[in-house]
Design brief:
globular; 7 helices; alpha+beta; about 200 residues; five-stranded antiparallel β-sheet; single chain
């Protein structure tokens, strides 16, 4: 379904109950990612965001990496619950989008504009966040539910090795998605009077 931007933004939620089906083709999912990476703005037009779309066995491989990494770090008792969450909420989906920021681009800007050097890593995170929101909203508008996860930096090295990614790509977030199998939880909004100031 196609909504206005305002409607799509209002409708976006975190879906933790998803399955591996998709109401759209994998090519259309790829087009969503390509559209965001092409058109979402970035500071100094850096275009520093990199995305990896994992489908099928690649998607499952990612969440096996997450499980094997965490299994080495937490108790067997705690891992039971962790594994159930990963299998039931993330690995159960249709795919995952990985978001990276290319540090070579950021370092190049720091060298070119030394007076702003401290800001470029911050602005890079702004750029990544805009890509995340754009892709998340477009996926949901297409009938897919998603969440945003952060198992980095624990899985960074294994991810880079598994998919032969450049060492300059820094993992920022993971977005598993699939067809929702349950409604998202209700969301309470803070009073806008405490969050927005208008002067006119």
């Amino acid at each position: 379904m196609k909504r206005s931007f305002e409607e799509a933004l209002k409708h976006r939620r975190s879906y933790y109950s998803i399955n591996n089906e998709s109401p759209i083709s994998d090519l259309e999912i790829e087009q969503i990612v390509n559209t965001a990476v092409t058109h979402v703005p970035s500071s100094f037009n850096s275009q520093s965001t990199r995305a990896v779309l994992l489908l099928g066995e690649h998607h499952l491989k990612l969440w096996n990496i997450v499980k094997e990494t965490l299994k080495k770090m937490i108790s067997a008792e705690a891992f039971v619950q962790t594994e159930a969450k990963i299998d039931g909420c993330f690995a159960s989906g249709h795919g995952t989008v990985l978001f990276f920021e290319d540090q070579t681009v950021i370092e190049g800007l720091q060298n070119a504009f030394p007076s702003y050097a401290d800001n470029f890593p911050i602005w890079s995170m702004h750029t990544s966040a805009m890509h995340q929101l754009a892709i998340w909203t477009m996926l949901e508008d297409a009938g897919l539910g998603a969440t945003l996860q952060h198992y980095n930096p624990l899985i960074d090295d294994e991810v880079r090795t598994t998919w032969d990614l450049p060492i300059s790509w820094k993992l920022v977030a993971e977005m598993p998605f699939g067809t929702p199998t349950a409604e998202p939880g209700s969301k309470e909004f803070q009073d806008l009077k405490e969050r927005v100031k208008v002067f006119k």
